[in-house]
Write a structure and sequence with these properties.
The complex is a heterodimer. By secondary structure, chain A is an alpha/beta fold. Chain A has one domain: Rossmann fold, CATH 3.40.50.300. In chain A, 31% of the residues lie in helices and 28% in strands. Chain A has seven helices and eleven strands. In chain A, strands 3, 6, 7, 8, 9, 10 and 11 form a seven-stranded mixed beta sheet that branches. Chain A has a four-stranded antiparallel beta sheet with strand order 2-1-4-5, with helices on one face. In chain A, a hairpin with a 2-residue loop joins β4 and β5. Chain A is globular and about 50 Å long. Chain A starts with 6 loop residues before the first strand and ends with a strand. By secondary structure, chain B is of the alpha+beta class. Chain B folds into two domains: 175 residues, no CATH class; 175 residues, no CATH class. Chain B is built from 15 helices and 13 strands. In chain B, α2 runs antiparallel to α14, α12 packs across α15 and α13 packs antiparallel against α14. Classes of the chains: A alpha/beta, B alpha+beta. The interface between A and B is medium-sized, with 29 and 25 residues.
């Protein structure tokens, strides 16, 4: 998609506000920064600072009031809802705080779900899903339903689901927020491995400094404004 | 396969709620089917009527008689093949609740005019030979345990007295729609008695049954008969057997309309119940649909999932309702056979049941689909937390 090290995401002068009754509440103001290809970025900041909103904008699940977001050379602010759905399916994998697996589907079926949107045959889908589950060390839990899995296992299924379509970017909203320390470490190691071994770009929203410590770059948001205080591996 | 599995898994996620909704649909489809069958039973006589039979009756009302002498005049009308005549006897067997239709009829012609009443040749001969002989339908014979040779006494309501008959024949219907509850005896037997007891009623008949060569000559034959008796003491109205039967139904048309209306109201009510179930389901799964949208599923996909789920619930309910319609209609028909001699679940009723199920599934899912399809992902995700 993009040469490693060069920017895969280019964000320019993004503004976003919400209407609350008759009031307009600004959430993001003049956000401009780049995310390098293969970068593990942590977005930090207090509650209500606009982290999740920014993540949603980058992932194409919400629209900015103004500004430009280019991902892999595609200006996503100009895409229609239908185009965005197709773009997300091919380019973005999602990891959520509460895993958000479909409760009536097994771990295997949850992982297979995004492939229904592709032209793959049933056999190919099953091969891909088995591979993805193996990559998160959950082959032996393939037939288990989410309710039969621990939080850490559910999050690993969610990661397998996120990577099954081989997207360039993974967005993670508090991926360890609902996990104990041990499970959180496992998930973070897994994510780190995705960046290191598969060259994925990860954008992670977190409150947890330990989680952020795994990232290459940490950016802070304060009341919708990006702080100039950037920590990167080279700085740490 | 995956999607079909998902339809079923989603549909039965809340087992109690779905089971109750399925039960509601089953009862609604069953009620709809039975009510439609009742309406069909009301019109059974009309459906069974022949296009080559006309009925000539008194123009004033059916309760007024016509002179027997009209028979030969009607026979002369071009296109007429046979003329018979009948009277509604209105006899009661033991007590009034034992109702069945019974007629005094011109036996020889009646047998020829109603080929759908299948009578073995030996029984036919025995009936024609015996002045007090009677022919009864299979259902009525079974109902009262009558056999060939049995003596049966009917209490006259229109023609007072106890009337004795000997069962000489038991007919079977040639078609499913043939009424097998009727009872016929010789009009001559009635007339001879009337000559002694009520002279003014003798040599008069309730209506003439007119056989015509082909259905297309029926209108002109009817006009010719009525024209012949214009300005006489007993003017006539001649109509097809179907129109004659319909004239009876028109007397009770309001009841039929109410039954039809109720059958549709039942479907409308279950549609509202189903719509509520689907609305609750979609509201509960708002977060899930938002997740699916983030994965790239569009409004079309989500709408398909909701419709599929609605269809599964409606299909299971409808299938159960249709399956139960047959045994319940059979029990209902047996219990009320004296009022509804033909009580058959028509194929069109099953098609209407299926259509009702489809309409319920579709209408119930329209609003939930619209809500899910227009859901903004960010709003949906906020509900999860």
């Amino acid at each position: 998609m993009q040469e490693k090290g060069g920017p895969i995401v280019e964000i320019r002068n993004i503004y976003k506000s919400y209407r609350r009754g008759s009031q307009i509440v600004p959430v993001l103001e003049d956000i401009t920064f780049d995310i390098g290809n293969g970068e593990f970025l942590a977005l930090m900041g207090p509650s209500g600072s606009g982290k999740t909103t920014l993540l949603n904008l980058l992932a194409g699940i919400d629209k900015a009031d103004s500004g430009s977001i280019r991902v892999g050379g595609v200006e996503i602010t100009g895409l229609s809802e239908t185009q965005l759905a197709g773009w997300r399916a091919a380019n973005v994998g999602f990891i959520f705080q509460f895993y958000n697996l479909i409760p009536v589907l097994t771990a295997f079926e949850n992982v297979e779900l995004p492939l229904l949107l592709t032209g793959l045959s049933r056999k190919e889908r099953r091969e891909h899903a088995a591979l993805a589950l193996r990559s998160v060390n959950l082959s032996d839990r393939a037939d288990h339903y989410p309710s039969q899995l621990s939080g850490g296992q559910q999050q690993r299924v969610a990661i397998a689901r996120a990577i099954i379509t081989d997207p360039a970017i993974l967005v993670a909203d508090e991926p360890t927020g609902d996990l104990d320390r041990h499970s959180a470490e496992e998930i973070l190691d897994l994510m780190e491995g995705l960046v290191r071994q598969l060259g994925k770009t990860i954008i992670m929203v977190t409150h947890d400094p330990r989680a952020a410590g795994k990232a290459h770059v940490i950016r802070h948001l304060e009341k919708g404004v990006l702080s100039s205080d950037v920590h990167s591996e080279t700085l740490l | 396969m995956f999607i079909l599995k998902l339809f079923f898994k989603n549909a039965f996620r809340h087992k109690l709620r779905t089971s109750l909704t399925v039960l509601g649909i089953t009862i609604a489809v069953l009620a709809f089917g039975i009510l439609r069958t009742v309406v069909g039973a009301w019109y059974a006589g009309v459906e069974a009527s022949s296009a080559t039979r006309l009925v000539t009756r008194n123009a004033v009302s059916l309760v007024f008689f016509l002179p027997l002498s009209y028979k030969e005049k009607i026979r002369q009308v071009p296109g007429v093949t046979k003329v018979g005549y009948s009277d509604w006897f209105g006899g009661v067997y033991i007590e009034e609740k034992n109702f069945f239709p019974n007629f005094a009829t011109d036996a020889k012609t009646a047998i020829d005019l109603f080929p759908e009443f299948m009578l073995p040749e030996n029984q036919k001969v025995a009936f024609l030979r015996d002045r007090r002989g009677a022919v009864v339908g299979r259902k009525t014979a079974e109902r009262f345990g009558w056999k060939i040779g049995d003596m049966v006494t009917l209490k006259g309501t229109i023609f007072p007295g106890d009337w004795e008959f000997v069962i000489r024949g038991i007919y079977r219907g040639a078609h499913k729609s043939t009424d097998e509850t009727q009872f016929f005896f010789h009009w001559d037997y009635l007339n001879e008695s009337l000559k002694k007891t009520a002279q003014y009623r003798a040599d008069r008949v309730g209506w003439f049954l007119v056989g015509v060569k082909t259905p297309d000559v029926a209108p002109e034959v009817a006009v010719a008969i009525d024209k012949m008796f214009k300005n006489s003491l007993a003017e006539t109205i001649t109509e097809t057997e179907k129109a004659f039967q319909l004239s009876f139904i028109s007397m009770t048309e309001a009841i039929v309309i109410v039954i039809q209306l109720v059958s549709f109201i039942v479907i409308f009510i279950i549609m509202a119940v189903m719509a509520n179930t689907m609305a609750m389901t979609v509201r509960e799964r708002t977060g899930e649909y938002a997740i699916m949208k983030t994965l790239g599923f569009g409004g079309r996909h989500i709408g398909g999932l909701i419709f599929g789920e609605s269809l599964v619930i409606a299909a299971v309910g409808s299938a159960l309702g249709i399956a139960l319609t047959f045994p319940i209609a059979k029990a209902f028909g047996d219990y009320l056979s004296q009022y509804f001699p033909i009580f058959i679940v028509a194929r069109s009723t099953i098609y209407m049941d299926i259509a009702a199920g489809l309409i319920v599934a579709t209408v119930a899912s329209i609003f939930p689909i619209w809500r899910a399809a227009t859901l903004r992902i960010a709003d949906g995700l906020r509900r999860i937390g």
